[in-house]
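Hi team, as promised in this morning's meeting, here are the two structures we talked about. I've kept the exact order from the run log so nobody has to guess. The first one is mostly here for context; it's the second one we should focus on when we meet again. Sequence first, then the predicted structure tokens.
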Amino acid sequence: MSVTQVAAYAAPAPKAPLERTTVPRRPVGEHDVLIDIKFAGICHSDIHQARDGWGEGIFPMVPGHEIAGIVAEVGPGVTKFAVGDRVGVGCMVDSCRECEYCRRGQEQHCVKGMTGTYNALGKDGEPTYGGYATHIVVDENYTVRIPEGLALDVAAPLLCAGITLYSPLRHWGAGPGKKVAVVGLGGLGHMGVKIAAALGAEVTVLSQSLRKKEDGLRLGASHYYATSDETTFEKLAGSFDLIVSTVSAPLPLDAYLGLLKVDGAFVNVGAPEEPVSLNLFSVIGGRKTLAGSMIGGIAETQEMLDFCAEHGLGSEIEVIAAEEVNEAYERVVASDVRYRFVIDASTI
């Protein structure tokens, strides 16, 4: 494949509706795989970036970093994949490969900065375009294998939502004997509940209302509380070893830190556009940790996919046609999806 144009959906400018267009894909290089995209998840991050919520973006922008597809062509030096393999691509497509974090398999923390799957510049200086497209070319070292036990449509969101929750749950030791709370039952949160429960933790959902309680319990939570109920924070004071917040709105951190046990950790994976405030006495008392986490390295992403296949964990999805993407964005903002929109790439 030489440089070619592929069909895609792009935001032509900040806050503009996405529209069908074409974008270039590079030739398949020595270690590249050409992927025939089958499904692409819609992450709230896509909306933040398409609307310049996290700073100035690169336009036109083709979002999408939850990509599942089939290998259509491989470069001559590729050893990890063959034509016909089921593969995925997550939030990054390159990194420096030389710093201590890249060598450690933590490419997401690359000192020089990982190369995002979209809204980034590759080493060739050209913009990267994401998964709302028919095809993508990716280095084999930033491509993962989707196990046979996972359907491609429910696997796609795992490439961001799945690893974003798996990584901190693993890092902070979620498992038997641990009490874990997940804040927010959305695209990220519902995978947090599934994964934490599969790891053996006792899981509680903290949501604004009890509207999704039945779902939360079905997905693996043992308890479900409404944070709009003033008594919730009194009842649950000092209860949790680990709290993972998946919401992208500012929270009253001092109140949530009060829910932790001594040496407990509150980990943010949701990224609000606005700054938050904190009284440091909320962490000093109880030797508590306020932390953040983002995706995982390539090896850990593969580990997550294998774990999800072993435990039968896929995302809860609503498959849509590409022409419905703008409506889907509005529904995500309104929390009107259970729990992840996935674009059928055959409709692009």
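And here is the second protein, the one for discussion:
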Amino acid sequence: MLSAKSLFQEIIDDDESFALFCSIAAGGESQGGWENARIAALVPRSERRLAPRIARHGADEDKHGRIFTALMRKRGLDPVPVPPDADYTMLLEQGGIGLSHDRLRAERPLTVQEVVTYLSHSRVTEQRAAEQMALLRRHFGDHPDIGRAVRMIADDEDGHLAYCHEELLRLARAGHAPAIRRTLRACALAEIRVYRDVSLAVMARMGRLLGWSRARSAVLAAGIHAVYVWERLAGWRRMVSLEMPERRDALGGPATAAPEYA
């Protein structure tokens, strides 16, 4: 039976596919760590209260990158190059979503509108991350090798999403609601397209590594396209709604340490 659990079980049981999965995840998380660190350094004076929370966000992302790398090392595996068509963060930037790396390398402070852009981009991508990690936590939270890492990362992603909701609502009350709505919608529509393309690229490579039949690969590709159609028609709306989270000030403290792996 083809299910999310059986599919991922097959990926983690094979060294080559596991290394590819962890390398893609580690690369994206590490990139997010750098981006958040730069944003924290460039926050405008009027939003300086955000700086430690953005820095905490970046520290969490760096930690996740180290965790995925450690999971590979634990199995005696080395990271592998991330294929360009599977590089989610790079493709989002190329699509004009979020703040460009050229902008983040500049030394001039961000504007409040750029902070809105950052938070809107994060709200959309953290929705995706939280959903993916919730799926992994449901099926593999008790796994002897990866369960602890999955639970920790899933909890962090929930906190990141709560933080985005809370801060965007604060900025909406301060008069930025129209800009937030426009930016969230643009980010969501771009993200679902990039996510579809990356999913197809990753599944194609996994299929080659694991020797999937053409029929099985076609079924998975059709499923990815079906998810995209649903998201394009209606699902994107879950990425743009804002509500005050139960978990308030989720990034108000220091980052937790990454688990140690033998």
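Starting points for discussion:
The chain has a mean pLDDT of 95.
The two ends are 34 Å apart (CA to CA).
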